[in-house]
């Protein structure tokens, strides 16, 4: 499906300009209107049916997307949402490969808005400007790293320690292979750091008696998302 982003890229104008032309909102020069319309036609965008559809306005339906393992984390949040006069549908994901198809299906319903909790959909699918989309618990960072090189990961962590002025670190890993553990490697390289391993998430409960000691640590690292949620529940 041709998107506003496609038309803007090919025609060399902004998303807002394309949106205004397609929705007959004015405030656009005749030359740009002609350029956008010709580009849309060239790309196979049906000006009449698709623009008419947009002018009808969004439906009353609102969608909230999140991964299934985050249900508990947002339970109270959803309880508050359910008290509002909104036509809400919750969509639960099990893997990242589902995001594109799920959102494409949602977009076909022309929703009032979309809320993504715990992930950003931007690198998976293009979303039209006319549909508001909100992200919760996501952030942009140029420090994101995907690597099998322990030294590179160490450099990123060390820069974080320096930037945030951290002095005491606590690492918790979900593994029983200590000699091959990334956190064990980092602990050996970073001063004033402690590493503990658990073989299953519920084993984290055994740390409860020592939670009071966590206050002396500036930052706690975990290598498993569910492990993180379990730890947050313990603090609550």
TrEMBL record:
It comes from the Bacteria. Gene3D superfamilies: lambda repressor-like DNA-binding domains. Residues 2-56 form the HTH lacI-type domain. Keywords: DNA-binding, Transcription, Transcription regulation. One of its GO terms (molecular function) is DNA-binding transcription factor activity. The keyword DNA-binding applies. PANTHER family: LACI-RELATED TRANSCRIPTIONAL REPRESSOR (PTHR30146), XYLOSE OPERON REGULATORY PROTEIN (PTHR30146:SF24). This is LacI family DNA-binding transcriptional regulator. It comes from Streptococcus pneumoniae.
